[in-house]
Amino acid sequence: MALKLARTALALGAAVSLTAVSLPALAQNVAVVNGTPVPVARANAMVREMVRQGQPNSPQLQQQVREELVKREVLAQAAVSKGIATQPDVKAQLKLAEQGVLIRALIADFEKTSPVTDAEVQARYDQLKKQFGDKEYHARHILVPSEDTAKEIIAKLKGGAKFADLAKQYSKDPGSAQNGGDLDWSPANAYVPEFADALQKLQKGQYSQTPVKTQFGYHVIELDDSRDAQIPPLSDVKPQLVQQMREEKLQGFIEGLEKNAKIQ
User: Fold this and answer.
1) I want to staple 37 with a disulfide (CB 3.0 to 4.6 A). Which of 29, 98, 101, 165 is the partner?
2) Neighbours of 81 (CB within 10 A)
3) Using CA of residue 215, residue 221, residue 224, residue 229, what is the dihedral sign?
């Protein structure tokens, strides 16, 4: 028993002399490596990041973090002792890494102090609803490069030809031609103004009696059906709106900083 106690005392004494850590130092640091402290704050930051990535916080994780930080400190000290930290390319990389940390912290601070409010989200949703309109249309179209071709297609329709067949034969729109010109359901303002105006004048089952000219060419348009706009409730789209508005706010913040910066 005496021998065992002596070995324990020797082990404890060796540990203390090796690390030279006092009790107050232990409260502030997770370790001291060759006289350089590894602060608790650094360990806490790493633990928070690993927890954010999905790992559960536990004594095992904290021990792994301590071991990792000690290893990093040993390696970093070795790099410094070899003069690696003064190499130009290493100094440049260190500066970039430092800037990255600062930028992430700045963005986190901005998002915390300038959050997207519920009132702002509601206002954006109301604006989008107004832009969407009260109706949406299930339309088909045939796009051709010349007015004469469009008139020829209209004549064929009057003669009994099927719109979908003519779309597959004539339309130059790669996105809809092989689907019989089908544009699926969309609000009128999803289209260029000339197309939208012509579409809204049609009744269900009607097609345009004259070619509709836009920047893309000449269209023959058919309205399959119309219905009240199917607008999802705010609760369904709120996450996407918040994300979009957060990005817009951040972009405005960055642009403001760049505008006010003195750049030579």
Assistant:
1) 29
2) 10
3) positive
User: How far is it, in rounded angstroms, from Cα 219 to Cα 173?
Assistant: 10
What are the pLDDT digits (tens) for 141-183? 999 999 999 999 999 999 999 999 999 999 999 999 999 999 9
DSSP summary character for residue 114: S
Helices (DSSP H) in the chain: which residue ranges? 2-19, 23-28, 40-52, 59-81, 88-113, 118-132, 147-158, 163-170, 193-200, 234-260
> Residue 49 is which amino acid?
E
Contacts of 111 (CB under 8 A, 6+ apart): 246, 250
Both 157 and 212 in one domain: the answer is: yes
Q: Tell me how far apart the alpha carbons of residues 53 and 23 are, in angstroms, rounded to a whole number.
A: 33
Asked if residue 217 lies in contact with residue 141, where contact means CB atoms within 8 angstroms, the answer is: no
Q: Are both 147 and 103 inside the same structural domain? A: no
What number of residues does the chain have?
A: 264
* Cα–chain center distance at 184: 27
pTM: 0.63
The pLDDT tens digits for 33-54 are: 999 999 999 999 999 999 999 9
Residues 78, 37 share a domain: yes
Say if CB 172 and CB 217 are below 8 A apart: yes
Rounded to whole angstroms, the Cα distance separating 63 from 81 reads: 27
Looking at the 3D structure of the chain, how many domains does it have? 3
3-class DSSP assignment, residue 216: coil
Least Cα distance to 217 among 194, 190, 197, 243 occurs for 194
